[in-house]
Amino acid sequence: MPPPLTPPPPLRRDAGQDRPDLVGDVPLPVVASNDPNQDARFRALVHRHRVTLAASSAAIVGNVAGYPFDTVKTRFQTFSYPSLSACIRDTYHTEGLHGFFRGIMPQLLASSFFKSASFAAYVGAKARVADALVPGASSGNSGTGGSDQQPALSPATTLLVSSFFGGMCSGAMIAVLTQPFELIKVLRQLQMLIGRSQPMDAALDHALHSPQAAVGAAAGSTATAALETAASAPLAAAKPVGLASASTILRPMAAELSTVGMAREIVRVRGPMGFGFGFSAHLLREMLGSAVYFSSYEIAKYGLSEATGSEPNLAVHILSGAFCGTLAWTIIFPTDVIKSTIQKDTLATTPRFTSVWACARSLYAQGGVRVFYRGISATMVRAAPIHSLNWAVYEAVLRMCTDQAKVAADDDGVRPGSPAVRVHVSGGKMEPGA
């Protein structure tokens, strides 16, 4: 007969001791440090990199929410869909939901870095321009040391000028960094449409180079037949903006290329320097766009705060973000159309346009001013909510990181007012700059 089972001994705790780290005689693992100095250093680190953290958070949220609109915009700009809804239906029926997010991975992976770099460059350039206009303006020490003399420029003017030129500097830097990714993104967004347009281009090439082209009547009939053949290709909903001439026939391209595959295709067709294709148009868009974007947001936030007589809040950030996004895209949309049209020909044997100005003149000859705003409805639908969300997330994360400095300043491990946790304040308002 087996011996009776004995119950395990009760958990023992020595009398008079309060040891929450022991269960019986077994120590519990330590999951966190109670070192106040370590916590203060962490909060100071968060505050030091607050612009990077805030901009990265805003970039990820904004890209995921806005990318389908950007895809529709690019397709509508470069292919002649009868309407925006036709573009959306064609994309969904031929490619499914994946078609709206085609090429998002390089954009999403790079967006955090580029967004944080953009904001950091903007903050630094803005501070330097502000100090050049009004010495000490960026640090809030723009007073005259007890003198009654007032600064030559008002705070609003200083803010407008410094944010505009700060945005231009930021845009120039970002244009250099994002050019290869932007080019791949555009080609990935247009990949299926370019592939479907190749039968039409091939038919045109055959018509224009056939032996009958030397005879007037025969050439006309052959060209007509070629166009009828091309029209029967699976491109009923869309055709390229401005029919490509024979010299711009696209090189054969696989129906489906990954992001890496598209990069290899660019190198195969144009070599490593091909990643700079259309850079002048991209630079123009980024410099002008960033200048208008940042300056309009700063002025809108400043004006709303002055009108309400309070610190900027969530409503101010949302309204200012909607305003700057809508205004910036309205102004720079023609440059975006030009950029997309030029970059569409990256894989062409001979691109149609040799310069931004040549592309602008050709587009204007085709459809006047209206052609420069093809696809703007998709962008306007996207602009207000997405940029409101961008700035709301940015300001919220920025405020959270700034609050860490306030907590760190009260800890014993860090002196209040030390450089690691000093909060930059200008004119009584928390500034987003370092």
Task: Label this structure with key terms.
disordered C terminus; 434 residues; two-stranded antiparallel ribbon; 11 helices
SSE topology:
Elements: E1 22-23, E2 26-27, H1 36-48, H2 50-78, H3 84-95, H4 104-133, H5 155-209, H6 216-231, H7 259-270, H8 279-308, H9 314-344, H10 356-367, H11 376-410, E3 425-426, E4 429-430
Antiparallel strand pairs: 1-2, 3-4
Helix pairs in contact: 1-11, 2-4, 2-5, 2-11, 4-5, 5-6, 5-8, 8-9, 9-10, 9-11
Describe this structure in words.
With 434 residues, the protein is mainly alpha-helical. It is built from 11 helices and 4 strands; from the N terminus they run ββαααααααααααββ. It has helices at residues 36-48, 50-78, 84-95, 104-133, 155-209, 216-231, 259-270, 279-308, 314-344, 356-367, 376-410, and strands at residues 22-23, 26-27, 425-426, 429-430. It has a two-stranded antiparallel sheet. A two-stranded antiparallel sheet has the order 3-4. A hairpin with a 2-residue loop joins strand 1 and strand 2.
Largest β sheet strand count, sense and barrel closure: 2 strands, antiparallel
Structural class: mainly alpha
Strand order of the largest sheet: 1-2
> What order do the helices and strands follow?
EEHHHHHHHHHHHEE
- Could you give the count of β-strands? 4
- The overall average pLDDT, rounded, is 75
Q: Report the total helices.
A: 11
Question: What share of residues are in beta strands?
Answer: under 5%
Radius of gyration: 29 Å
Calculate the terminal CA-CA distance, rounded to whole Å: 79 Å
Helix content: 55-70%
Task: Describe the global form.
Answer: globular
Low-confidence stretches: 13-26, 28-32, 200-237, 242-249, 412-434
Oligomer: single chain
